Amino acid sequence: MILDLGLRDYKEVWRLQQELVAQRHAGQIPDTLLLVEHPPVFTVGRAVGDIPKEIGGIACVAVERGGDITFHGPGQLVGYPIVDLRERGRDVHRFLRDLEGVLIHTLQDFALEARRRPGLTGVWVGEKKIASLGIAVRRWVSYHGFALNVSVDLRYFRMIRPCGLDGTVMTSMSELLDREISVAEVKPHLLTHWTAVFCREDHALNVAPITLEY
């Protein structure tokens, strides 16, 4: 199941993920992918000790995922897979490689030679990083996920060390292709490759907007 949330506050979607994780573990919903863009926010994973409240006036949110600090903002396609890994051999590393594969094939649709880098999580084009991954697993159900830089403002990354790297290493599809690429243009390609890897035949692909009430 695919839920397209549009532009949503980070904490709002974080709470939704936690609810869906419980529902997935109980077998109440199928594997689900949330697609979303966020207003500007920095998120900080478990690898960071001291966490500032904000950087440059932008809030920092401490979360359960692995990894370091990263940025989310408009023009970035963020995906949160709520997937029961008990049905996938309880293999977290394989799950991460599968997520990277979905992103690599999506970028290849745009003639970008995307690849993995040994020892690093994420997706690269040349020496530039174009997508970040960081997940958490609760009772063998995944949440958090990936962020693909489509047309996001890269200047925000230079305010931090994203995933422990120099901020100038980050790139976007728009920068590499030298034209404006929209998130809407990329979504159908990503969903095609997501479906090929993660959707069983008995789970029809359902792309729907959702209204969040808190």
Automatic annotation (TrEMBL):
UniProt xrefs under CDD domains: LipB
Pathway in which this enzyme or protein is active: Protein modification; protein lipoylation via endogenous pathway; protein N(6)-(lipoyl)lysine from octanoyl-[acyl-carrier-protein]: step 1/2
Record-linked Pfam families: LplA-B_cat
Swiss-Prot/TrEMBL keywords: Acyltransferase, Cytoplasm, Ligase, Transferase
Boundaries of every BPL/LPL catalytic domain copy: 27-202
EC number(s) per entry: 2.3.1.181
Active site per the UniProt annotation: C163 (acyl-thioester intermediate)
Gene3D superfamilies linked to this entry: Bira Bifunctional Protein, Domain 2
Reaction(s) catalysed by this chain's protein: octanoyl-[ACP] + L-lysyl-[protein] = N(6)-octanoyl-L-lysyl-[protein] + holo-[ACP] + H(+)
Broad enzyme group: transferase
GO biological process, one term: protein lipoylation
Gene Ontology terms: cellular component: cytoplasm
Site (Lowers pKa of active site Cys): K129
Transmembrane is among the record's keywords: no
Keyword Transferase tagged: yes
Function per UniProt: Catalyzes the transfer of endogenously produced octanoic acid from octanoyl-acyl-carrier-protein onto the lipoyl domains of lipoate-dependent enzymes. Lipoyl-ACP can also act as a substrate although octanoyl-ACP is likely to be the physiological substrate.
Similarity field: Belongs to the LipB family.
Additional notes on this entry: In the reaction, the free carboxyl group of octanoic acid is attached via an amide linkage to the epsilon-amino group of a specific lysine residue of lipoyl domains of lipoate-dependent enzymes.
PANTHER family: LIPOYLTRANSFERASE 2, MITOCHONDRIAL-RELATED, OCTANOYLTRANSFERASE
Protein name as it appears in the record: Octanoyltransferase
Species: Acetithermum autotrophicum
The gene coding this protein: lipB
